[in-house]
Specification:
The chain is of the alpha/beta class and about 350 residues long. The chain is built from 13 helices and 9 strands.
Length: about 350
């Protein structure tokens, strides 16, 4: 082989290797530049866990691909909230009732001291409706919620926001809250066997069921038990919202009443002030711009899509003493929805 030919081959190999090394150097650098962003959410099988992956894509896009968003499930939103305030996550799945318990330092937050900045109002996304269901074969024994007082009931996972909602409701009604903790996947078996006589069921925006309840209603026939008129009067007098739900929008078959009555709570995702104003503003704005697509992908986002700004206002007004993240403040001011009575997080 001539020296010229040998030299040519050598040059080609050098160039090829240079290209390979260049790409090898670029790709790891890009991967290393992507910072972690962790969403602390509820247990696998819950609604909060089910929609977390959908939200993570919106967040990654909002932040220009600079962050890799991962989903971290916890036993309950209460534990997820603590994870963020302990520094092991950045975004927490939560609800108005959980934020209130934390602010008041009661329930699971009694004596709790955050290691990181406290959670503040950031973004609210959908309402949920807490209801009660029993096995259809036992439905004649349960006409009102009082019939479940003192009986073994699974009020959703301990620490779940719906679990906290039932505690709040039972205090209003003066009933005996006897919770039996079970695995979400054993919900149908427990109702069928009688180890629990009732199970708390919830819909999101009157439309979506959590995964474990979708499985439950396929495996056994259930009946939803509505509160009786006197119970409804007490619930409303306590300032709690009673929401009508069309069962055809959420369940695949008849569950008894033509109109279901649930007690509402408002869910969202909150952060601390360690997350910058710019980042939160970009995330909230992205959710606003993608609200219709989110509703198409998951019906639970329908109310948010119809009135995104109004839902943020409702979330803040549920606990007006809790500060609002500066990023959400900027968004609300742009939409002329900021109330001067609210407190900006970090301000004095």
């Amino acid at each position: 082989m001539s020296k010229t030919r040998t030299g040519y081959i050598f040059v080609v190999l050098v160039v090829a290797l240079a290209v390979v090394f260049a790409f090898s150097a670029i790709n790891p650098a890009n991967a290393q530049q992507r910072k972690p962003m962790r969403i602390a959410t509820s247990a696998v099988g819950s609604y909060g866990y089910g929609i977390a992956a959908l939200l993570s894509k919106v967040i990654e896009g909002a932040l220009g691909g600079e962050y890799t968003v991962t989903v971290q499930p916890y036993t309950s939103p209460s534990v997820a909230m603590k994870a963020v305030m302990d520094g092991t996550a950045e975004i927490s799945y939560t609800a108005d009732i959980g934020m209130n318990e934390f602010h008041q330092r009661v329930g699971g937050f009694k004596g709790y001291q955050p290691k990181m900045p406290e959670l503040v109002h950031t973004w609210y996304s959908y309402p949920m409706e807490s209801m009660m269901a029993v096995a259809a074969k036992n439905a004649d024994k349960f006409k009102c919620w009082r019939d479940l007082s003192g009986k073994p009931v699974f009020y959703t996972n301990a620490g779940f926001m719906n679990w906290l909602n039932f505690i709040r409701i039972y205090k209003v009604l003066g009933y005996d809250f006897k919770h039996v903790q079970i695995d979400l996947k054993s919900n149908a078996d427990a109702l069928e066997s009688g180890s629990i006589v009732g199970s708390g069921v919830y819909t999101t925006a009157g439309r979506s069921l959590p995964a474990y309840w979708k499985e439950t209603e396929i495996r056994i026939d259930i009946r939803v038990v509505n509160p009786c008129p006197d119970e409804l009067a007490k619930i409303k007098a306590a300032g709690l919202a009673v929401i009508e739900v069309d069962p055809k929008n959420a369940f695949s078959k008849s569950v008894g009443p033509s109109t279901l009555l649930g007690v509402g709570i408002l869910f969202g995702h909150n952060v601390g002030t360690n997350i910058s104003e710019d980042m939160v503003y970009k995330m909230v704005t992205a959710f606003y711009k993608n609200k219709d697509d989110l509703a198409k992908s998951e019906p639970g986002f329908t109310p948010m899509a119809k009135d995104f700004v109004g839902m943020q206002v409702k979330g803040i007004n549920a606990n007006p003493e809790i500060p609002v993240h500066p990023g959400l403040v900027k968004f609300l001011k742009e939409h002329k929805a900021w109330d001067a009575k609210w407190k900006v997080a970090g301000s004095k």
